[in-house]
Design brief:
Length: about 190
Amino acid sequence: MRVMWAPWRMAYIKKTRKPRGCIFCAKARERRDASNFLLHRGRHGFVLLNLFPYNSGHLMVAPYAHVKSLEALSDEAALDLIGLTNASLRVLRAEIKPQGFNVGINLGRVSGAGIEGHVHIHIVPRWNGDTNFMPLFAETRVIPEHLRTTYRRLRARFQQADARRRRDHSRSSVTIHRHASRRTSDVRS
Ligand SMILES: [Zn+2]
């Protein structure tokens, strides 16, 4: 492996030389989302930036439950993972404008799963011609944009989406309330 200047990666390697237990469980449990590059927390799962990306903006979606495979999840949790995947695709499309994605799950070490004890969905943004660079990334582990900057940009997008959802939700409940009161007055008159 060629060594290039990548201070963020060195810091990460130094810090996690002796990882104890499952990194997905640890990151979900700890309340240090920025230093853990955790982008978004949902009801049953969360989204984080891959620190060893295949491409810029490589995200992972994982459930809070420490399970090996999708079929161990409740229907509700499985559906939530798809919701989080969709939210991630929207954020990536808006912020880094990829031309396509690879979305996938490796189950079991034989399939290439790096962390096989805790199921996770990979979302890898793709651009025309990036295959020319990907073997280079794999060899050097250097990515085109500083991870911290990517994190800040994507985190801001997730927060905007959250705020929009909350606003829409409160607006729709006001509408429902208005309709309800109108119906009540209709009945009275
Ligand atoms: Zn775990």
